Amino acid sequence: MPSTATEQRQAVRVAARPYALLVEDEAPLVELIRYNLDREGYEIATASDGEEALMMIDERQPDILLLDWMLPKLAGIEVCRRLRGRAATRNLPIIMLTAKAEETDRIRGLDTGADDYMTKPFSMSELSARIRAVMRRIRPALAEDRVVIGDISVDRSAHRVTRNDVEVHLGPTEFRLLDYFIQHPGRVFSREQLLDAVWGSDVYVETRTVDVHIGRLRKALLKGGGEDPIRTVRSAGYSLNAG
Ligand code: CA
Hints:
By secondary structure, this protein is an alpha/beta fold. It has two domains: 135 residues, Rossmann fold, CATH 3.40.50; 97 residues, Winged helix-like DNA-binding domain superfamily/Winged helix DNA-binding domain (Arc Repressor Mutant, subunit A), CATH 1.10.10.10. Helix content is 42%, strand content 20%. The strands form three sheets. It has a five-stranded parallel sheet, with helices on both faces. Helix 9 crosses helix 10. The N terminus is likely disordered. The structure holds calcium ion (CA). Calcium ion binds next to loops. The site of calcium ion (CA) has 5 residues, from loops.
């Protein structure tokens, strides 16, 4: 089981945290939400207007979007409508944030396709609970500690993987790769996307490094027998069979 010093450092730094994008133009609320979600283990990015939000989502799709209703440049409801009109973001979990005075628009907001609605002021524990509920409904793999895909079972908090009840030993990078795949079973990822998600976009790693670690992950998963769960998609990348 290869485990270099670099890998160990990365394991401490990254644990495939769910990525939340907060779109809000009230700075104090941004800081409050950012602080709390960071503590709960989310990776969090922020945008302060609707246009910036759409650009950021084009670059990297969040696991959950917290979207203020009243925003400069492009209103939250319009951002929501546009995201729902695109195939790539049709199922993106969205929670709208709104001021009390705008509550009459509540139904309109949900008609637009938001998954849930929070009326300001709200408590951070209430927001966290709603986020978890939405994520559990839409992306079960992101909210649960124990995930089962086919004959593979991953205990995310214990960093333990079994296949057909036989323990699979993985290095930290292989674990993060698998953890990322199980969040999006069946979806094909390019080497560049895997690098960004698993190694982080601020780390310089050659794309063939991904092939090396995929090879190790595949070998470890095949040890106990069974079919190869990782599909190589020629000139595109890799995906985990949905089971
Ligand atoms: Ca606002």
